[in-house]
Design a protein that fits this description.
Blueprint (H helix, E strand, L loop, with lengths): L4 H16 L3 H14 L5 H7 L5 H14 L4 H7 L5 H14 L5 H10 L3 H10 L10 H18 L5 H17 L5 H17 L3 H24 L3 H9 L4 H15 L7 H15 L1
Helix pairs in contact: 1-2, 2-4, 3-4, 4-6, 6-8, 7-8, 7-9, 8-10, 9-10, 10-11, 10-12, 11-12, 11-13, 12-13, 12-14
C-alpha cells in the first residue's frame, strides 16, 4: 500500500517539531499535535516521549498511543524502556488503555516484580482492563485466572496505592468472571473480606467496599437476565448490609485518628498506663 504523500509530509513535520522543541511548553504542544494527528508513523516518537522529563508530554503521548490502538502494541512491547522506570510506567498505562491481550505478559511481570511502585500500580490497574473477548473462551478463562492470582499477591503490596490499584483490577476481573468462572469471583470476594480486616489504609478499605458494591450490582443485573444458580450464589454472598459496613469503616477510622490536645481520653489513657506500671 503506497503511503499518502500528504500524510508522510505531515508526519515528518510533526515529528521534527517534537525533536527540535527547545522548551517544555513547546515540547508539550508538539507532542499533543503529534498525538492528535493519529499517524502510525508517529508511534516510535510518541514512545520516546514517554521517557522525556515532561509529565504533560508523557500524558499526551499515552493518549495518542491509546488512540492508535492495536498498531501501537507491538512497538510498545518492543521499545519499552527497561531502564527508565518513569517511561516504563507510562508505557504500561498506554498498554492498559489499549487493553490488547498481547500486553498481558508484561502487565503480569510488572505487577509482580517491578521495583517502581508507579509501574506496579499501572500494571495492576491494567490487568483489569484487558479485552478478554479477543481471546477464545478457554484462553480467556486461563488468562483471567492467572491475572487474578497475581492481583491477589499484589493485594499484599507494601504500598497502599498499589493495593488500591489491585482492588480496582480485581473488581473488573470479578465482574468479567461473574458468569464464566463464578468460583473465581467468589474467591476474590473472600479475599476482599480477609483483606479489609487487616488493611491499614482507609482509602483501600473504602475502595474494597466500593468494589463489593459494584460487583453486587453487576451480579444482580446479570441474575435478572439469566437465572443462573451460580450467579444467584454470588449475589447471596454479596448481600451485605452496606450501612453496617460503612459504620465499621468510620468506627475504625475514628479509632486510628490521633486524639487532639486536651481530649479527656488522653488523660484516661495516660492514667491507665501509669497505673499498670506501678501496680
Amino acid at each position: 500500500m503506497t503511503a499518502d504523500p500528504a500524510e508522510t509530509h505531515l508526519a515528518k513535520t510533526l515529528i521534527q517539531a517534537v525533536e527540535t522543541a527547545d522548551s517544555s511548553a513547546r515540547l508539550l504542544e508538539a507532542v499533543q499535535q503529534l498525538s492528535e494527528a493519529r499517524l502510525e508513523a508517529a508511534i516510535p516518537t510518541l514512545i520516546a516521549a514517554l521517557g522525556y522529563n515532561n509529565p504533560g508530554a508523557a500524558v499526551a503521548a499515552v493518549d495518542g498511543l491509546i488512540m492508535l490502538g492495536k498498531a501501537a502494541v507491538a512497538p510498545l512491547l518492543e521499545l519499552v524502556d527497561t531502564y527508565n522506570y518513569g517511561a516504563r510506567a507510562w508505557a504500561i498505562r498506554a498498554l492498559a488503555g489499549i487493553g490488547d491481550p498481547r500486553g498481558l505478559g508484561l502487565l503480569i511481570e510488572a505487577a509482580k516484580n517491578d521495583f517502581a511502585l508507579s509501574v506496579r500500580r499501572a500494571a495492576a490497574r491494567g490487568l483489569g482492563t484487558v479485552n478478554w473477548e479477543e481471546l477464545s473462551p478457554e484462553q480467556a478463562k486461563s488468562a483471567q485466572a492467572e491475572a487474578a492470582e497475581v492481583l491477589l499477591e499484589v493485594l499484599q503490596d507494601p504500598e497502599w496505592v498499589v493495593r488500591y490499584a489491585a482492588v480496582t483490577g480485581l473488581q473488573e476481573l470479578a465482574i468479567a468472571m461473574a458468569v464464566s468462572d463464578t468460583d473465581w469471583a467468589m474467591r476474590i470476594l473472600s479475599q476482599f473480606e480477609q483483606r479489609i480486616e487487616v488493611e491499614d489504609s482507609q482509602a483501600v478499605m473504602a475502595r474494597i467496599w466500593m468494589a463489593q458494591k459494584e460487583i453486587h450490582e453487576y451480579a444482580v443485573s446479570m441474575l435478572e437476565k439469566q437465572p443462573d444458580p451460580e450467579v444467584k450464589t454470588l449475589v447471596s454472598a454479596l448481600d451485605l448490609d452496606w450501612q453496617a459496613t460503612l459504620d465499621r469503616l468510620y468506627a475504625r477510622k475514628r479509632r486510628e485518628e490521633p486524639l487532639p490536645e486536651g481530649d479527656p481520653r488522653k488523660f484516661r489513657e495516660a492514667a491507665a498506663t501509669i497505673y499498670k506500671e506501678i501496680a
